[in-house]
Task: inverse folding
């Protein structure tokens, strides 16, 4: 067995893309999102990905099942659920990048900082599921350019620089999903509104709303399914959260073929750390459940006793196209949902455009004031 708690506390890497040689020419095959199969750009050979129980990849297609959380925390996960990689840290954003033995330097896909090979070994839980890329790089580029075009105050130079067609990186980003059964005992207060007639300072009568409080208590239960928690620190959470929603009907059992031609980042948020964030999500929903259970026009929650049982989890990979541009010494990062095309990114500002807009607004205000004054003078003259 693996010491799961020690493993979970360590940071894990950005894995190099999986490689599958073409049986005809020996070049690397890549997964083509638009075709849903592996293709060779050199000779044109195409290989289907069999997601059933038979076929050339069946031996590497584990079932998409939940893992028991307590078993993982107790360091009792079997060895086949684990894997090991060698990595180096990006000096720019802290991402961990894996290198092939014959490569000594590359560019970080998250911030475009040059990275030189180092060594470091990490063990971590293998992914159980993956949503394969649905958008090609060309489609992701178009989505990003359309998004940039809608930013009124973005620098023209950045838009032109981005549209030159610099390559985007397809990265499978790690997430945890948590399932749980919950039961919560609560005590609180129910508020019912009523109205009384009062006399105001002006002597006039008016209706004033008041709340009559009475004690309330009870129990609520809720089953949570697939609470999604980002397990990466390489991308700003404010961006990745806004890439939702994801269509989990597209989730497939993890297969290395889906990663061919892409990269997959290892998780940097430990399993137990992710569960603390998941519990905060649960508690927020349970508070809403309690308020509905109390009823009335207003509610107060004085005490909650939460019990969480049957916690399971999955480590999954979600597809994100990443663009990192250095423009005039500053890095700008953009992310595109590789399933839906939704775009988020760092908001660049053109202070020249903002200044011109402010000046134009001041001119319009001054002109409106002048015209109003002329009309007032003309009316007085008449």
Result:
């Amino acid at each position: 067995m693996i010491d799961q708690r020690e493993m979970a506390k360590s940071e894990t890497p950005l894995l190099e893309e999986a490689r599958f040689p073409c049986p005809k020419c020996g070049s690397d095959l890549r997964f083509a999102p638009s075709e849903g199969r592996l293709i060779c750009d050199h000779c044109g050979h195409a290989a289907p990905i069999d997601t059933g129980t038979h076929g050339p990849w069946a031996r590497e297609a584990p079932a998409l099942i939940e893992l028991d959380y307590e078993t993982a925390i107790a360091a009792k996960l079997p060895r086949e659920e684990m894997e090991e990689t060698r990595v180096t840290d990006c000096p720019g954003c802290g991402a961990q990048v894996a290198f092939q033995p014959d490569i000594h330097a590359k560019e970080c896909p998250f911030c475009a900082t040059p990275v030189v090979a180092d060594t470091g070994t990490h063990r971590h839980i293998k992914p159980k599921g993956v949503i394969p890329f649905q958008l090609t790089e060309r489609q992701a580029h178009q989505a990003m350019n359309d998004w940039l075009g809608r930013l009124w105050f973005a620098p023209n130079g950045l838009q032109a620089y981005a549209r030159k067609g610099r390559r985007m990186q397809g990265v499978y980003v790690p997430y945890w999903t948590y399932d749980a059964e919950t039961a919560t005992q609560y005590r609180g207060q129910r508020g019912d509104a009523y109205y009384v007639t009062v006399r105001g300072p002006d002597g006039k009568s008016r209706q004033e709303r008041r709340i009559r409080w009475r004690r309330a208590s009870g129990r609520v239960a809720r089953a949570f399914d697939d609470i999604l928690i980002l397990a990466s620190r390489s991308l700003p959470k404010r961006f990745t959260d806004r890439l939702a929603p994801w269509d989990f009907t597209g989730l497939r059992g993890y297969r290395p073929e889906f990663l061919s031609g892409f990269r997959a980042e290892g998780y940097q948020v430990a399993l137990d750390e992710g569960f603390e964030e998941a519990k905060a999500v649960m508690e927020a929903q349970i508070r809403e459940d309690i308020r509905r259970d109390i009823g009335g026009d207003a509610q107060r929650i004085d005490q909650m006793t939460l019990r969480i049982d049957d916690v399971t989890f999955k480590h999954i990979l979600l597809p994100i196209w990443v663009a990192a541009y250095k423009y005039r010494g500053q890095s700008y990062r953009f992310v595109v949902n590789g399933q839906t095309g939704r775009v988020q990114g760092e908001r660049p500002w053109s202070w020249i455009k903002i200044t011109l807009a402010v000046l134009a607004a001041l001119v319009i205000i001054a002109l409106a004031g002048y015209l109003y004054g002329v009309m007032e003078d003309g009316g007085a003259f008449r």
Q: What stands out?
A: The longest strand covers residues 169-199. The chain has seven helices and 18 strands. The helical segments are 4-9, 69-73, 137-149, 156-162, 237-240, 271-294, 351-381. The longest helix spans residues 351-381.
